[in-house]
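S.,

As promised, the adenosine-5'-triphosphate run. Input:
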Amino acid sequence: MDVTLNIHQSPIISPPVVEARKAARYYVMGDVTVMALRGVDIKVEKGEMVSVMGPSGSGKSTLMNLMGCLDTPSSGAVLLDGTDISELDERALARVRNEKIGFIFQQFNLLARSSVLDNVATPLLYAGVPAKIRKERATHVLERVGLADRMKHLPRELSGGQKQRVAVARALVNEPSLLLADEPTGALDQETGHQILDLFEELHDAGNTLVLVTHDPDIGAFTPRSIHLLDGMVKE
Ligand SMILES: Nc1ncnc2c1ncn2[C@@H]1O[C@H](COP(=O)(O)OP(=O)(O)OP(=O)(O)O)[C@@H](O)[C@H]1O
Ligand SMILES: [Mg+2]
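Predicted complex:
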């Protein structure tokens, strides 16, 4: 058999954007060990939009922290674009985080004293992108989320939905492999929340990979696939 020929004939398969292999996270608290995640196997492929659901305390944020390189597993492995993050030191983790992950949080986490434009450009500043290009790219993503007319405003001058759009623009500006959102609609009324979900749908249609961590059943119903956690395990 001509193996070489077979290799050339098969399509190029890219690794999952994020993969957890028997990933566990324990918190040792004196005599007590809290098993926040008990060995989960998860794969998210490029271009997928997936929700991670489960009751309070089931391990959703713990899993999100692992996927986002904010934390490393106690045992097992987490791979981002095929690279095992377990072995990276704090510096390397920070770099991977900045290059590969766009975070969106419930409370938006915007810089209160910085303009909308500067908020969105911040990840590019950390990445060492020159000022002119920072401004161009931040402007471009703000146009994309419908906030071209708010660039000079401060966060407090915006509505909740607009603040979350700024946060989405900031998450997108580095063209990350993965957009990771923790309760992205949790601080918004239902209608505004649905507008943010519509924006996620647009980003998904454009080929972005999204993981939405939530206990909102509306979001679970909205994503093509849901991963359900219960007591630190994936529920089949
Ligand atoms: N830093 C920590 N130290 C000790 N225990 C922790 C820590 N973080 C989380 N835990 C525990 O791990 C378990 C999972 O917590 P986690 O925050 O992942 O849950 P969650 O699904 O995000 O819940 P919620 O919906 O309330 O946000 C809980 O029992 C929690 O008490
Ligand atoms: Mg949580």
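Confidence is low (pLDDT under 50) at residues 1-5. The pocket of adenosine-5'-triphosphate (ligand 1) is lined by residues 27, 29, 34, 36, 54, 56-62, 215 (CB under 6 Å).

- D.
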